[in-house]
Backbone:
């Protein structure tokens, strides 16, 4: 995997080539930004230049930043994409999560591909995602999905969540896919602690309706139930929705050499044992690379109980150990993480995370850090990640 990391003042811009035609870009702030306009300009100038130079097309883009920074960041994004020949503005998810220093830009996460066959997915004429062909498979990425309605009664948060899942299913059908092809979701709630149990009940009901969850399970069979990997965490959105979701689906075309497998992990068993319908991770295996998409991971034991209550350092160490155990069987190390998001219950925990990461040789790990509640009040830290291992000849320099 070809990697490149450039430090610019307090900004880290990290790129990682996965196989022959896929790149992850992670731009993150490391301290308070006193010139957010200049920083955003720097980020998008480098991004647009990379896209143009390597003939890449964005297929997934997510920005983390405070609500107050959104309009300025998006204006800079639009200008630089246009100036660098990106004539079609790609779909975008903006997650309103404050950086540890309070206000401003937290970071950017982008996946871009060099595939010739990339198309924009529309919903009623509005871009909502991208599709592309790769290694004999069709990839579908939907962004900023939610169930909030502008002109009708929205009902409960659970009603919104149900409409969100139905909306995703309907759009996937227009692409020759269904929710059964979904391998990864990222779900953000302005108030995750307020109704996460209700959300899980809605998700379970919809997954049963979609044929993902069988009508009956037991402790032996539950580990064999295929579920998408997922993150479920606090994060606001400009639409005022109860939750928003990004979705990745993969459809195996005829003769595809790609395979997808869900991973339960050695240190944590299936989350479905305690009502949360997601896998600990999902691996996407291609001829030249393996990607491991790690769900939002926190300090939880194999029985689903929270560990190290009140001890932020121990929770961080435990989380990293769990992630290491998830990706290890796929041949990956923590140093092979090419994109990550770190969620801190309190801003002051950032320093502890950096100390632990340094002790474990992860100073250069590309991670956007934000302040966010985890799905349990006693959990102080969560992290999701993508790790990749590339076989000989599968990577390319950027």
Residues:
């Amino acid at each position: 995997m070809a990697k490149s990391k450039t430090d610019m003042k307090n900004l880290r811009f990290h790129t990682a080539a996965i196989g022959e035609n896929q790149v992850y870009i992670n731009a993150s702030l490391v301290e308070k930004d006193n010139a957010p306009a200049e920083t955003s300009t720097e980020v998008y100038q480098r991004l647009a230049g990379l896209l143009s130079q390597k003939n890449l097309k964005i297929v997934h883009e997510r920005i983390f930043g405070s609500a107050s920074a959104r309009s300025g960041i998006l204006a800079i994004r639009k200008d630089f994409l246009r100036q660098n020949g990106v004539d079609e503005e790609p779909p975008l998810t903006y997650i309103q999560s404050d950086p540890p220093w309070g206000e401003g830009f937290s970071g950017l996460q982008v996946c871009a591909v060099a595939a010739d066959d990339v198309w924009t997915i529309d919903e009623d004429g509005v871009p909502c995602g991208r599709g592309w062909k790769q290694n004999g498979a069709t990839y579908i990425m939907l962004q900023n999905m939610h169930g909030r309605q502008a002109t009708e009664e929205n009902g409960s948060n659970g009603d919104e969540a149900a409409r969100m899942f139905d909306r995703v299913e309907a759009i996937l059908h227009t692409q020759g896919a269904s929710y059964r092809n979904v391998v990864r979701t990222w779900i953000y709630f302005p108030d995750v602690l307020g109704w996460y149990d209700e959300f899980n009940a809605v998700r379970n009901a919809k997954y049963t309706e979609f044929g993902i969850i069988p009508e009956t399970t037991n402790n032996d069979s539950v580990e064999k139930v295929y579920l998408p990997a997922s993150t479920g965490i606090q994060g606001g959105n400009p639409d005022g929705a109860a939750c928003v979701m990004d979705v990745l689906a993969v459809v195996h075309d005829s003769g595809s050499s790609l395979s997808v497998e869900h991973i339960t992990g050695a240190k944590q068993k299936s989350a479905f044992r305690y009502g949360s319908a997601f896998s600990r991770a999902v691996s996407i295996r291609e001829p030249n690379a393996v990607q491991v998409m790690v769900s939002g991971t926190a300090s939880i034991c194999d029985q689903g109980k929270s560990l190290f209550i009140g001890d932020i350092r121990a929770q961080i160490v435990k989380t990293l150990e769990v992630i290491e155990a998830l990706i290890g069987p796929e041949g990956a190390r923590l140093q092979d993480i090419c994109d990550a998001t770190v969620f801190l219950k309190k801003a002051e925990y950032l320093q502890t995370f950096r100390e632990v990461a340094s002790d474990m040789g992860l100073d250069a790990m590309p991670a956007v850090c934000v302040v966010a509640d985890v799905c349990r009040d006693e959990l102080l830290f969560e992290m999701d990640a993508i790790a990749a291992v590339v076989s000989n000849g599968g990577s390319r320099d950027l």
